[in-house]
């Protein structure tokens, strides 16, 4: 048998005083036991509408041998030829277009309805072949009237027939079921998670009732004799169900659009199908089907038991990089905003190696995937408006792009403020930055460190005393005073520790900044790594988050594509310090992780040109498997540049000198590796490798400081040094080694507002003297783009 629990056989005593069960009684008992096994643990109030006979059990119980024995009992005076002919009529033959009658016989055997079984016997012996079969199920009244069955049996058939024709759910198909049909769920849900748009149930589907789509478009039952476990997202809401229908259609259409797009990313979770259930008048349930996950990322990062496992840092960072690459694929390839990035919407799939029934070993799997596209929309689509979304605002904020659920702690400032500018790709990047902080806390410490971060986010609005939990504070909160008193709000580990305050564009131009408690938490995390080799890498990772991602002004945030590149560098450096003997995850390294090695961009490849910020996000190329170009000499230079900030930079500095002596042109040529494509000077500034910068400036000329770098969003080295909050040390090196170099007043005025005082002062010293040749990037850009005034 293939049900969850094999039905026990009715006992037959060997005592002469008690007769042996007949084959009819035996089959009836097995059918009843199989049906009962599907509702074990189901509340009594639901058993009548949930019970069913799995098709695998039907075939097993009414096997050829069992039917032959039963027919010899039923047709006791008939010849073997008659018995075999009756057996053939019950089993049927699909190739000859002869229908089966197994389900119909099981319906009659269920309660041993002697009158119905008598009619079934007559049908088997009748000369005609057009008597009722399984294809007649479910009977309506018209069909019942066309049979020879007495009217007194009609109600029994209509009440019980659906037990014997349970539904089959198909992968990648949208289906419609009637409310009387039995969905093939075995037992109660294994788990359920409530959300604002509905509930996600984890359920077992009976063997044979989940059909997978083959490459040729046909369907076949999953190749297993065990139940298939799937996740079912059931939508709810509204007195008439209109909210549920609207939310379901929005998410299903978005997933369909992503599925049909030209780009795919394995860390974007698409649905595995959908269905609706309707009664006589309307649709009463909407459901999306998904692969079952082990847990959410929030559960993973905050569960102390999972924290005891020996996850390698590079394994976790590999998945984090993959998530950001998946977000870049959404933004740049699919032109889609997710708008609800949070740890609860990132699912973790952690599966050990499994021995399959055919003896083969299914490899382990450990990967994270972005899920829940209920709020997602195309970047240029109209905002959703109306009562469905208006009433879902948070207590103190409201989104310009109304959400289908209350605004959450991971959403960006511009999403949650009434009257603020619309959501953008930068809004997703902010949310991902919050996730990155949680992963870093888990990475270097334990889940308790992550919980400490989440528990520190409370703030209180001055007007009305309303509380909320966010990664930032605004000037209308009591916590804002900590921002104003800078001694209480400083990054201990950053070169420029002052807070970055931004404006949320509202009628009253509200100021905002990262929550002081988040800053405090990051300082504590950094100190936790004192005297540990990963501290410099952690410093850079936190710097990426706070200086390029968690910025109030969304136009200043780095794009997801370039964020993935910087995190990939963090991952690679972290991997280098992992000792070979460091314990690995208890699973063998899965095949799925090989595709996430450092040189793999999961379908998001470096474009020739693009912007590091949201204003000009790159358009990655399609997924193409091709070998990476070999440029070991130049990658050696870039590698040495990134290492000169380490504890022992002398050896790397010597490598840089040797490389520049060997080929001086490297100082102005981009690295040919697709994973880099950056100019050496830009690389040195980005990594704060000042020893390397000094060697490069000695060999460079002033013109090299104004060459656009495609791997850095088309920024020149000068613009790289002026990126918020500015790099005063790099600018001082410019002045020291290129005294003839100068910038225009126009350039200075355009960048000073985003720079700290030391950086602004260093840039001011580079201002051109009267009559000095203009050497910033504006003239070069006009010449390169054909917009020169002729000078």
UniProtKB/TrEMBL annotation:
Compositional bias per record (Basic and acidic residues), positions renumbered to this chain: 577-597
Biased composition, Low complexity: where in the chain? 1-25
Q: Give start and end of each Protein kinase domain.
A: 186-547
Q: Which SUPFAM superfamilies match?
A: Protein kinase-like (PK-like)
Where are the residues of the annotated region Disordered? 1-29, 577-626
Q: Which Pfam families does this one have?
A: Pkinase
Molecular function, one GO term: ATP binding
The name this protein carries in UniProt is Protein kinase domain-containing protein
The source organism is Alternaria burnsii
